Amino acid sequence: MTPRPVSIRPARESDLPALVALANHYIEQTNALFTTELQTVEGRRSWFEGYGTGRYRLLVAEDETGLLGCTYSSRYRPTPAFDTTVETSIYLQPHCHGAGLGARLYAALFDILRMEEVHLAVAGVAQPNPASNALHRKCGFEEVGTFREYARKRGVWISSTWFQKLIVTTTA
């Protein structure tokens, strides 16, 4: 069987329903998203509008079957001292794990971020999640520490391991 071609591109507003469905999967089935309330397209619209140009990007991977995953870079903290630090996130459809798509999505995001004034990317991974830990290490992140039992969802304490990756800017 020949693999289907996968396209990685900036998200469009028409992707919002599929992005919401993907987020809702992670809200319902995992601890990867700490929110407990399911999302709606209208409720996620302002989140979506925060991406586009500059440091804050939202990319999707798709094939002819639809959206396969997404990655994005968000503001880390709302003070100017952190302007060149972004927090990255990545989510894949369950059937896409382990096929290299996460690494391809992150590579596309980092290619863009190298053209922006970004110094550091950070990512928090809810534990346990050996696949996501491995993906972040494969993509050049280094582990910097774990917050133990710092969130609670569905009555369960969640720990989160944080990773960082220096972004080498290619602009002059």
Would you kindly provide a written description of the structure presented here, covering whatever features stand out?
This protein has one domain: 3-Layer(aba) Sandwich (Aminopeptidase). The protein is 26% helix and 34% strand. It has four helices and seven strands. It has a seven-stranded mixed beta sheet, with helices on both faces. Strand 2 and strand 3 form a beta hairpin. The protein is globular.
Keywords:
single chain; alpha+beta; 172 residues; 4 helices; globular; Aminopeptidase
CATH topology: Aminopeptidase
Radius of gyration: 16 Å
Overall 3D form: globular
Low-confidence sequence ranges: none
User: How helical, in percent, are the residues?
Assistant: 25-40%
Structural class: alpha+beta
List the total number of helices: 4
User: Mind telling me the CATH class?
Assistant: Alpha Beta
Largest sheet: 7 strands, mixed
- Indicate the mean pLDDT: 94
State the domain count: 1
Spell out the helices and strands N to C.
EHHEEEHEHEE
CATH level 4 superfamily: Gcn5-related N-acetyltransferase (GNAT)
Number of strands: 7
Strand order of the largest sheet: 1-2-3-4-5-7-6
Gist of the model:
The protein has 172 residues and is of the alpha+beta class. Helices cover 26% and strands 34% of the residues.
Helix-strand layout with pairing:
Elements: E1 7-10, H1 16-29, H2 41-49, E2 58-63, E3 66-75, E4 85-92, H3 101-113, E5 120-127, H4 130-138, E6 142-153, E7 156-166
Parallel strand pairs: 4-5
Antiparallel strand pairs: 1-2, 2-3, 3-4, 5-7, 6-7
